[in-house]
Amino acid sequence: MDAGAPKFRRRKADRPAEIVQAALAVFAEKGFAAAKLEDIARQAGVSKGAIYLYFETKEDIFRAVVGQAIAPNVVAVKAMAAAHPGPLADLLRGVTGHIAGIVTHTPLGCVLKMVVGEARNFPEIARVWHDELVSQALGTLTAAIAAAQARGEVKPGDPRIYALQLIAPLLVAVLWRETFVPVGAEPFDLPAVMSQHIDTLLLGLLTEGARP
Amino acid sequence: MDAGAPKFRRRKADRPAEIVQAALAVFAEKGFAAAKLEDIARQAGVSKGAIYLYFETKEDIFRAVVGQAIAPNVVAVKAMAAAHPGPLADLLRGVTGHIAGIVTHTPLGCVLKMVVGEARNFPEIARVWHDELVSQALGTLTAAIAAAQARGEVKPGDPRIYALQLIAPLLVAVLWRETFVPVGAEPFDLPAVMSQHIDTLLLGLLTEGARP
DNA sequence: TGTTACTAAACGGCCAGTCAGTTATTTAGA
DNA sequence: TCTAAATAACTGACTGGCCGTTTAGTAACA
Question: What is the pLDDT of residue A1?
Answer without folding.
Answer: 42
